[in-house]
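Bumping with the actual sequence this time:
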Amino acid sequence: MNLVDRFLHYVSFDTQSDELTNMTPSTPGQMIFAQALAEELKRIGLTEVTLDENGYLMASLPANIDKPVPVIGFIAHLDTSPDMSGRHVSPRIVKNYDGHDIVLCAEEDVVLRPAEFPELHHYVGQDLIVTDGKTLLGADDKAGIAEIVTAMEYLLAHPEIKHGKIRVAFNPDEEIGKGAHKFDVEAFGADWAYTMDGGEIGELEYENFNAAVARVTFKGRNVHPGYAKHKMINSIRIANQYAIMLPRWETPEHTEGYEGFYHLISFEGSVEKTVLTYIIRDHDRDRFERRKKELEHLTRKINNEFPGCASIEIADQYYNMREKVEPVMHIVDLVSDAMRAVDVVPQVKPVRGGTDGAQLSFKGLPCPNIFAGGLNFHGRYEFVPIQSMEKATEVIVQIARMAAEK
C-alpha cells in the first residue's frame, strides 16, 4: 500500500476523541483503528508489536547494523479532534492545484479560498487532499501515522540503508490532552523520539507553551428583582467585572510567536452561580507563574468588594519541553540535517499549543515535533499536500540513516 492509499484508508476510521467519557481510549473507534494498525505493522514485517488495554500501540524495526546506535522513536496519535466530526470522511484529491478557489461542498457553499487561507499559494502545482466540507480530514494525525508506517516499510524493503533499532508508537487521546498520560516510556525503550504531529512542511518544534486551566466560581444571591435593592448579588455581573479586569490585548486573537495569553473558553451562569473557565498559556515559565498569580490576585480583589463571593482552582496541564530538549540539542540538529538532505528548509518555531512530546519529555523521553504536512486542522477546511507527506516520509528515513552514520 502506498503512502496516499494508506492515508486515505486511515481517515475512513472514526477516531474522534471525547473528554467526557473518562475512559482510555476515550472512544471505541480508536481501539478499532489501533487493532487494524497492529495487524498492518505485523504484515509489513515489524517486530515486538504490542497493543495494551488503553490503546497504546508499539512496535520495532530491528537494527541492521552491528555497531551500537541509539534507539530512536517515532510517535503519532490515533485520535482526531472533538471540534468537528470525523465520521464518514470523504476526501478527494485536487491534482495540480491551480491557485483558485476549491469548492468543497457546493450545496452548503463551503469553499476553500486563497483569499481566506493564503497558505494555499505555497502549494500551487501540487496535489492536495481536501474534505467534502462536511467533516474534518484527519491529517492531524493520520498523516503522521501514514508517514511513519510508510517509512518503516521503505526501510524494510531497502536493507542497504543501515540503521539502528527504531521504535514506533501510536497513542490515543492526544486531542484531549491525555495522549501521554498512560504512555509507558520504559517499555518504549527509546533514547529519544519525535512526534510526527506538526503542520506545514519544514516545521520543527522543540518549544511549546506552559499551560494551565483555571476555573473561577462566583456565588450570588437571587432575590425578586422588584425588591432586590441591597439584597441581590448577581454572580453574572460580578463575573463579567472580573473578566474585563484582565488585559484585553493578552488574548489569543491579539498574540503571536512567544506572546502568552489568557483565554476565556467558557462562561456559564445564573444569578446564583457563574463559572468562568480560562486556559493560561506562556512560553516563559516565570511569566506563566505570574499569570496564575494575577488570576488569584483578581479573585482576592473581587472578594474585597463582595466578601466570600469568588473562588479559584488552577491546575497545570503541561510545561515547555525546551528545558528538557536543550541539553540534548543534537536530536534537533539531526532533524535539521535530515530535512536539508531531502531539500526541505527547516522552519524552527515555537508551538503555540502543546504536543504529546511535551509531556513525554518531562517523563524522560526528549521528544521534539516534526511536520506531518497538514494545514487548517480541526475543521472542514483542513487539507494536506501529498508532496509534503512524501517529504515527511523521506525525513524519517533520513533520520534513521543519519543517526546510524553519526
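The C-alpha cells above came from a reply further down the thread. The longest strand covers residues 210-219.
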